[in-house]
Amino acid sequence: MSDDDEYAGFDAVRQRRVKIVAWVVIVALILVGGGATVIALLFG
Fold it and tell me: Which UniProt keywords apply (predicted)?
């Protein structure tokens, strides 16, 4: 058995975790950036 077979399951889990983290970061940046823009327009 090769190393690739041994770690195949871990790679799928890692890829899913990376995608989740990336989406969370993107959504957080949009929310924070959007919130900052609204506050700047209201109080600017």
Answer: Membrane, Transmembrane, Transmembrane helix
The predicted model scores a pTM of: 0.59
Q: Closest Cα to residue 34, out of 16, 8, 26, 11?
A: 26
pLDDT tens digits for range 1-44: 455 667 777 888 899 999 999 999 988 888 888 777 877 888 87
Query: What sign does the dihedral 21-26-35-33 (CA atoms) show?
Result: positive
Task: Name the residue with tokens 């195949």.
Answer: 8
18: left (phi over 0), alpha (psi -120 to 50) or beta: alpha
